Amino acid sequence: MKQRTFLAARVDQWSREHPRLLDLTLAGLMWLVFGPLSALAGPLAFLIATAAILPLAVRRRFPTAVLAWLATVFAVQLMLVPVPLPANIAQAIVVYTVAAHVASLPIRLLALGAALTGSVLAGFRWSTPPEYMANVLTNAVFLGILSVLVWVIGDLVRGRQANVSALREASARLEESRLQRERFVAQQQRVVAAREIHDIVAHSLTVMIVQADGAEYAAEHARPWDRADAGKVFATIGRTARSALTEVRGVIEVLRDTDADTETDADTGGPEEPHGAGLGIAELRRLVDSVRAAGLAVDVDAEPAVFDDVPAAIRFAVLRVVRESLTNVLKHAGPHATAHVVAARKQGWIMVRVEDDGVGVRRADAIADHVSEPGYGLDGMRERLRVLGGVLEAGPRRGGGFVIDAATPVTVPSPSARPAGLATPSGGTGRSGE
């Protein structure tokens, strides 16, 4: 049901929406009323009244010009007409208009000065004996006070309009800021989703490619062909593909769930990961088993309580780092490489090391990969840990191979906190994952 408004409110709204029509209507009505009344003083008075009233139709479009015109008309009136006219109200309206709608302070003060000067001159012109000076003083003071009041009211209206405009601009800026924040959150969610899908697909496809290549080689060269081995290969491929599909669907469901809390978390800088409560040592070992099934020999040295009382987002990030690191070993370390995973807690930090004894990757190739795919691989792992307050360092290992060291706080630390004992491997950043 539409709320009813007062007549005055509706008139005010109409006048704000149609200011020019309002001025034209006001000028016409004033001329119909005060024109004939001023004509009682003679034809010349009627002409002066008409010249004073009709310009009010454009008073808001040309306030300064109308002020100058009415000052001239008033001067002519003082010289030719010895009495005040009802049309003199037009001068008061113009003083109000200039005070309310002109931004220039000198012009507004000029209007006030002209009104006060006219009040004094009118006091001398329209006063009569026998107490002439007393009448002059009374008329000048009365007209001067009236002029000041009209000017002050107009100036207050102008200040109110300026405040309303400032509030509207502030509201528009706040709305734009809110929209920008929503766009930023949406963009951040897309980046997080792209990173998660990249990690899932890269790891799963690497495992499947290794298995498929091994099966192809065995089918062409091995004698006799072992059906049981072939079954294991295809079972691993199918299991890896189904797991990847499930994880990708989980990420998409989080993006589609508009009722879920998708706002950026103040501590982690990203949306909470789905199904994080069950991540732990068992998930780490399943991850390692899937890599072993792809043909990579992996040793795991993880404390049983390394993930106890650790937030789900941190556990998720640590497991993603391990998975991405082992995926890189599969792709870059060579066919006979072995990997070693260490996970431990030290002084409130979860320390993870993934190293291999493979052939590594040439620095030029690593730089090219790093430039061509920004935000993925090592950069993606660093970003994942950075929003949690962690760090990651990677580079060639002494004696051959590659090593990745990662440290993540059990609880999000202050920005100045850094783990003790995390040394940068010699050689700097080397391999960029895909």
Shape: rod-shaped
Q: What is the CATH H-level superfamily of the largest domain?
A: Histidine kinase-like ATPase, C-terminal domain
How many E strands?
A: 5
Strand order of the largest sheet: 1-2-3-5-4
Run of helices and strands = HHHHHHHHHEHEEHHEE
Average of pLDDT: 76
Poorly predicted ranges: 258-278, 362-375, 423-434
Structural class: alpha+beta
CATH level 3 topology of the largest domain: Heat Shock Protein 90
Describe the main β-sheet briefly.
5 strands, mixed
Radius of gyration: 42 Å
User: What amount of the residues lies in strands?
Assistant: 5-15%
Q: Percent of residues in helical segments?
A: 55-70%
Which CATH architecture of the largest domain is right?
A: 2-Layer Sandwich
Number of domains: 2
Give the termini distance in whole angstroms. 60 Å
Just give the CATH class of the largest domain.
Alpha Beta
**Number of helices, where a helix is a run of at least 4 consecutive DSSP H or I residues:** 12
Region (Disordered): 259-278, 413-434
Transmembrane segments: 29-54, 66-85, 105-124, 136-154
Domain Signal transduction histidine kinase subgroup 3 dimerisation and phosphoacceptor: 194-259
Pfam families: DUF7134, HATPase_c, HisKA_3
Structure description:
Helix content is 62%, strand content 9%. It has 434 residues and is an alpha+beta fold. It has 2 domains: 7-175; 185-409, Heat Shock Protein 90 (2-Layer Sandwich), CATH 3.30.565.10. It has a 5-stranded mixed beta sheet, with helices on one face. Mean pLDDT is 76; it is low at 258-278, 362-375 and 423-434.
